[in-house]
Amino acid sequence: GAVVSQHPSRVICKSGTSVKIECRSLDFQATTMFWYRQFPKKSLMLMATSNEGSKATYEQGVEKDKFLINHASLTLSTLTVTSAHPEDSSFYICSARSQREDIDTQYFGPGTRLTVL
Amino acid sequence: AQSVTQLDSQVPVFEEAPVELRCNYSSSVSVYLFWYVQYPNQGLQLLLKYLSGSTLVKGINGFEAEFNKSQTSFHLRKPSVHISDTAEYFCAVFYNDMRFGAGTRLTVKP
Q1: pLDDT single digits (tens) B29-84
Q2: Residues A50/A56, Cβ–Cβ less than 8 Å
Q3: Could you tell me if A4 lies within 8 Å of chain B, comparing CB atoms?
Q4: Are A43 and B51 inside 8 Å of each other by CB?
Q5: 117 residues of chain A, pLDDT tens digit each
Q6: In chain A, residues 61-90 whose CB comes closer than 8 Å to chain B
Q7: Contact flag A43-B90 (C-beta cutoff 8 Å)
Q8: What is the pLDDT of residue A66?
Q9: How far does the CA of residue A45 sit from the closest CA of chain B (Å)?
Q10: Which residue in the set B44, B97, B101 is minimally distant from A108, CB to CB?
Q11: Of all helices (H) and strands (E), which one includes residue B48?
């Protein structure tokens, strides 16, 4: 199946700094990418949907100025957590979809564990 | 809006025993239903999905699930589990986007 990578897999940062997480589709062109946040013992929460070359669509309650999403190419999307605080600590997962596949088909990255001290 | 409830957060079971992971969904429109598995330090992998047609869906690794519209359920089953099935399992519903349940941690003990 298609492969999606995330980098870094783990990151620890100080409060107030910004952190960038990369999501790459390795063997296909991802016209749409999704960013999820997973809290302990809770479900994956969709944060935003991004289409290549256009602005991301954020879910209700997600601060677009805090979670900056860029989808500049068909194989790369980035999530930047700006001025991170301890409450931003979480597991962030991206997924990608190709326009060649059914709309319900998504390939998931392995996730990034963010810890803000 | 669509939502998914996974009724069990943890399911311990002995090896070679049968297992059922429960999932109920809520939706006012027809949706697609999915089960994903997440092994440690890996991304979610699709186990199976229901789009339409036969209500019994067979997936990878010997798993199957049955769509029950009247009970709004999509329970996942396996007749005999292996140690390697130990993982987190997520039920999901898709309409315009994917919505996940809270997950069920399946632990298979020898």
Answers
A1: 888 999 999 988 778 899 999 998 889 999 999 999 999 999 999 999 999 999 99
A2: yes
A3: yes
A4: no
A5: 678 999 999 999 999 999 999 999 998 899 899 999 988 777 889 999 998 888 899 999 999 999 999 998 999 999 999 999 999 999 999 999 987 777 778 899 999 999 999
A6: none
A7: yes
A8: 96
A9: 7
A10: B44
A11: strand B44-50
Which residues of B fall within a CB distance of 8 Å from A43?
Answer: 4, 90, 99-103
Facing A49 at nearest CB: one of B36, B51, B97: B97
The per-residue pLDDT for A98 is 84
Which residue among A43, A46, A106 places its CB closest to the CB of B101? A43
Nearest CA in chain A to B38: A110
pLDDT of residue A1: 65
- B11, amino acid identity: V
Q: What angle do CA A40, A44, A47 make, to 5 degrees?
A: 120
Structure tokens, A92: 């962030």
Q: DSSP letters along A58-97, please?
A: EPTT--TTTEEEEEEETTEEEEEE-S--GGG-EEEEEEEE
Rounded Cα gap, residues A16 and B58, in angstroms: 48
